[in-house]
């Protein structure tokens, strides 16, 4: 699970692309690493949200119950306000918190 309490911006940030290739020496490789980490974060968040919302699942969906469940709405709003997975992954990458390796470079 990503650390969402860190200094991750919740909006788009202009970045110096020269900072992205310091770890890999290749901007495209860095983008792939960030994208794969963002996919991992997204999957973890989706699973976590699904688990929390499954507590509210009922066998009979009554229209009034859907609109009255404030707790479920607050949980959804919390996840909507969180930084996007790409922003979290980029910040983790820049802070050197992402483990990655390239098997082609190891040979």
From TrEMBL:
<dbReference type="InterPro" id="IPR036161">
    <property type="entry name" value="RPB6/omega-like_sf"/>
</dbReference>
<protein>
    <recommendedName>
        <fullName>DNA-directed RNA polymerase subunit omega</fullName>
        <ecNumber>2.7.7.6</ecNumber>
    </recommendedName>
</protein>
<dbReference type="GO" id="GO:0003677">
    <property type="term" value="F:DNA binding"/>
</dbReference>
<dbReference type="GO" id="GO:0006351">
    <property type="term" value="P:DNA-templated transcription"/>
</dbReference>
<keyword id="KW-0804">Transcription</keyword>
<keyword id="KW-0240">DNA-directed RNA polymerase</keyword>
<comment type="similarity">
    <text>Belongs to the RNA polymerase subunit omega family.</text>
</comment>
<dbReference type="GO" id="GO:0003899">
    <property type="term" value="F:DNA-directed RNA polymerase activity"/>
</dbReference>
<dbReference type="GO" id="GO:0000428">
    <property type="term" value="C:DNA-directed RNA polymerase complex"/>
</dbReference>
<dbReference type="Pfam" id="PF01192">
    <property type="entry name" value="RNA_pol_Rpb6"/>
</dbReference>
<dbReference type="InterPro" id="IPR006110">
    <property type="entry name" value="Pol_omega/Rpo6/RPB6"/>
</dbReference>
